[in-house]
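Annex B, item 7. Sequence and structure tokens for protein A, then protein B.
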Amino acid sequence: MLGPAKPQRAVPASTKRRPRDRSRGPLALRYVLQGLIDATSDLVAAHDLRGRYIAFNEAYRAEFARIFGVELKVGDSMMDALSHLPRDQTNAFDVVQRALRGEAFTLLAEFGDERRARRLYEIRCAPLRDRRGRLIGAAYALRDVTERHRVD
């Protein structure tokens, strides 16, 4: 036997449980962000504080393979990927370390295996920070400016 029904309190609409909207979860956000970085022809990448790739777009992946002969995947270290090219490894290390100190900057730098393709890039770097403002990595947008500088 059930006891008498307890009176129900009115619950504000803002506190009622709503069905979970799966289009707003972390996985959906990841697809949206990947779509955004893939939508540009610029080469876009991001590193964590250990210098490991946490994201890059298809343009970056393809260009890295073309000029360095290395296929990247998320989690790879740029330093390891460039171990066969000490000059580029050193130059990349300098850029990554500067960005991972929290500095936003733009520079021109030449990269690429001379046996494959050597190109000049305009590189825009910016720190990545969490909600509390703590540095968690760095983002890079690169544009091949080789032809533009040959004309100048």
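Protein B:
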Amino acid sequence: MANEIDQLSEKCYFSDIEKLISTGHSVKIPIEGNSMYPFLIDRRDCVFIKRESNIKIGDIVLVRMPDKQYILHRVYNIIHEQYILMGDGNIHAMEVCQQSNIIGKAYKIERNGIYIMPCSFSEEIKVTLWRYLRPIRRYLMAVLSIIGKITKK
């Protein structure tokens, strides 16, 4: 029962966010989960989302999938008006959506009180590099995990 309530409250939460964004507001969303690791960290980072029609490869987007699930992933590719999405922490899993499914785009990231612009030159370089390192992400993720455990001690 608790799991059903959690799913319902999450659905309502994102439905409200979608309404706010569609009326021109921007919304701050705390990151939950690891699908965007290492660029967005669970419970540490927040993203600011606003409506944006100019979506390109590398952008972080909030999407309502056809099954009504909401995801925050990066645009990995665009093929014939279909957007291929992939979490930075994913090795293989990708989602496909249409532009009409895209609710908004991240224009700012908050990390420990510091603001980062996803469209900055340094962020775009990191994201492009990460995209091309996809064949060895599994190994890089393992190393990052070990480093994270060591630094937490």
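Comment on protein B: The CA atoms of residues 47 and 109 lie 5 Å apart.
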